[in-house]
Amino acid sequence: MLDTAFEIIGTLKRNKLRTALTGFAVSWGIFILIILLGAGNGLSNSFTMNNSEEKLNTMRISPGWTSIEYEGLKEGRAIHFVESDLNMLRSKFSEYIEDIDTEVQSNSMVISHGKDYVNSSITATTPLAANLWGIKILSGRFINQQDMADKRKIVIISDRTAETLFPDGSDPIGEFLTMNKIAYKIVGLYKADSNDGNPSIYIPFNTYISIYSNALQNQRMRINVAVKNLTDEQVQNEFLDSKIRQELGKKHRFNAEDSNAMWIWNRLKQHLQTQAASVLLTNAIWIVGILTLLSGIVGVSNIMLITVKERTREFGIRKALGAKPYQILSLIVTESIVITTFFGYIGMVCGIGVTEIVANVLNEANQGSDMTVFSNPTIEISTALYATLTLIIAGTLAGFFPAKKATNVKPIEAMRG
Predict the structure, then answer these.
(1) pLDDT in tens, 65-80
(2) Overall pTM surpassing 0.70 (yes/no)
(3) 400 CB neighbour count, 10 Å cutoff
(4) Does residue 384 contact residue 348 with C-beta atoms inside 8 Å?
(5) pLDDT tens string 342-367
(6) 111 phi and psi, to 5 degrees?
(7) Could you tell me which of 101, 56, 133 has the C-alpha nearest to residue 224?
(8) How many other CB atoms are found less than 10 A from the CB of residue 160?
């Protein structure tokens, strides 16, 4: 066994350049595969992290403008949802609707506290919004049912808004701010999305209606729905397009086929589509990675073919001196295994090392950020080991067939060749 090891080492030393090039192809193949798999995992992890706070079974229905004539009414009409739409949808689709609420957003309102002020949007909503859209409360609380019933003048502001209105860093909970000469008490502080340039200030929907009833006529109400019993995209689409559109189209007199009259943003549909895209991306990465591995395997196979050709006379002499075919076979196969294992291990270690370094750099860069493009772009050790083991097996087979051919050559023919 020791003699075989020394012989293999001697052979590799005599062919340094050829061995190095073959080894580089093997290392590069496993290295690229690990990098590609890590990048795919990074994209998938970032999507999961960016949307982890939101429920998957949510959708938002927004009114638009008609683009098709309907029952004698011209196109271009603005559609306005009303509170009775919620009761209609709840009764019609009780099998699918887990919860439903509404909201109105008003833009460009000046909010002040003492001499400090911001220009922000106001979202009038219900207690359901915090759960539906993953609003993360940092301190205090969100809107509750008692706020709705009593039409309380309370607000929930973002951490970025608090930094502007309270530059001294004092606790805003319990303080009052002014909007349109009306005082509102701050009861909650939430974490704003880093990509939201103008984070909203939340107030109870009923409070907004009672104070700004005239303004509500020129604004359009959105409907938020938490659905249930729907996990299949096809059923979800059928439910949304053919059922809700028909009912709201009938009530507000617009063509159900008019996509501009009503827009639906579907969180579950987006999630399913992203999952499908993630699967396609993973498959594509594996295909590219395997092709890269194949280039290394082909290199090992070529080096073994050349080795057998160059050592044909040597193998003939060995057989003439009594060497068994399996001894020659094991010598060549072992050499192939050594090359693929050694350089495959180097490629695996380098690939894992690079992904870990990139992961640490990205984690530091993403500190305090809500949205990330890559998150933890690494792979499990088991995946890297399986890929390396696959390469070793393929390299073994690449050396086996040339070796098998060499053992079948008769000694006199080998020596003559």
Answers:
(1) 999 998 888 889 988 8
(2) no
(3) 17
(4) yes
(5) 888 888 888 888 888 877 777 676 65
(6) -120, 130
(7) 101
(8) 18
